[in-house]
Amino acid sequence: FSANDLIQDPLNMSGVILSRLEVFKSESLGVSVQKSRLFSRDNKHILIMASVSFPAVDTEKSRRMMDFLHQAKAEVEEKYNQKIHIGFSGNHVATLDNASAIRGDVQRTVTVLSAGIFIIGLLFFRRKTHALLIFLPTTVSMAAASALFSFSQTDISAVALGCGAVLIGITVDFGIHVLFGIDASPHQSPEAVVKRLKRPILAGAFTTMAAFSSLAFSSLDGQRQMGLFAIAGIFFAAVFSVTLLKFFVPGRQAGDRRPVIDLIGLCDRLMAVRKAHLKWISAAGLILALASITGISDFKFDGDVAGLNYLQPGTQADMDDFLNTWGRTSPSLMVVAAETLDTALEKNDTLFDILTVLQEKGLVEKVTSVSTIYPSLEKQNRNLSRFQNYFTREKVDEMRREFNAAAVREGFKPDTFSLFLSGLDRSSSPLSVSDYQNTAVEKLIKAKVIVKKERTSILTTMQIPDKSKIPRILEAVKSELPGIRFLDKKEFISTITRLVDMEFKRLTLFAAVSMMLVIALFFKRLKLVLIIVSPVFLAAFITAGILGHLQIPVNLISMIFIIFVFGVGVDFSIFLASHEAERAK
Questions:
Q1: By three-state DSSP, how is residue 118 classified?
Q2: pTM recorded for the entire structure
Q3: Are 218 and 224 spatial neighbours (Cβ–Cβ below 8 Å)?
Q4: Helices (DSSP H) in 416-569: which residue ranges?
């Protein structure tokens, strides 16, 4: 084996070539290769990586895969008397945990919420049957919205799934308004009560639908699904409440009991307290509003999507163990792209040259690029030209004489190294990926070079010790390569934070404008519209101020609270305004 190596490559030129693969070790900070296995630096862990043949969002296949892996883990650990530990980590594991957590949370939320609403119904209604009828509009709306949704969607996101619990809290209000009106008005027929409540119920439903319609313009598919699902559910619940719910209400009976809690009497007493202490209540409200002004300056947005993840304790322990063992540092990425493979390779060579200079200046570290093993055709031709200019025919002939003389002197046969020397004198053609076929180098290249029909992208990784130098690095790179893309965890969080900021402002503007337009269509008086919306805007302002004081940032999911403030909170103003309008007639 050694003899063949010596004969075929006496100058160890293959070692020079293989040394170029050393840069790829920098991507695996906690890995050392021993005995064809990936060991941790303490030699107590072995890493096995597998490519899964289906996407992470296919949770059913992920569940079957994890069941198989956990069974295999139990068998192996039992076989070795628990002297070894096996842990799993990856996108499929995390996605499955998140999906299972959301499904469980929705089930618990629906159960607790339904039980709470039922208890409230028993406390406030005269008849127990009304406590059950509360859920009828919600049940109809959920069934109708799900059926309608199934025509246009084959899968539903976890965010939209959580909308089911949200819809219970919203749509149950329509049934409560109708049933409480019937329950509290024994001298009016159900038809008369529904006629009196039809306009405020429909106005409240359409303002809420208008607010949720803002999600149709969201950048996130899950939020768009949630918006459409909510709009459909609210529409069906409102229509059912003002058209069909009255037919399910049983006739009045002489023995109807008094409610456990007289809600009307309770509200009258609260109004009396407000009237008696209006100055103090107004002062408290003013103090709260002023305090919110100072909190608004601390109202922040959070773009760290990792905070939205939920991992089960066992999975989280495996993840922590994995990161502690193999390294928590994530590399920064740069991606060049072009219409053809060779143009992309040329750009990648330019990028590598720039990063090499930046590495000499200490701005970047551990640059990993395929430019060292798979340069562009232009760079290969330049390298080949320099090689041929150095190994001229005269120089090769001189080397042949010296090698032959050395071979005889050291006991080798003459012309032992003729195969090697003739290779120096032979013309060569540029390399392609096919030249690396069935080798580890081919996999390295394919991991960095993504070739599609009309676009080729090439990935380069690096470590940036001082993140504050990122703008300087990007300036140096983009001056030569304007279209380059840069990915970094800190930079990514900053980008998502800006996205949340823009999305929140867009949702707020759209929800506010659409809400006011719907109210204007129903009430047609500017003064009345302003009266109705003023408590809602004040509530949104105070809520943002409180979140700022409590240092609770808004993320991609929690920013939807603004829709509930506008879409659901305005219902109270609508009903109060409608009630006062009825009294004024």
A1: helix
A2: 0.68
A3: yes
A4: 418-424, 440-448, 470-478, 489-523, 526-549, 561-567
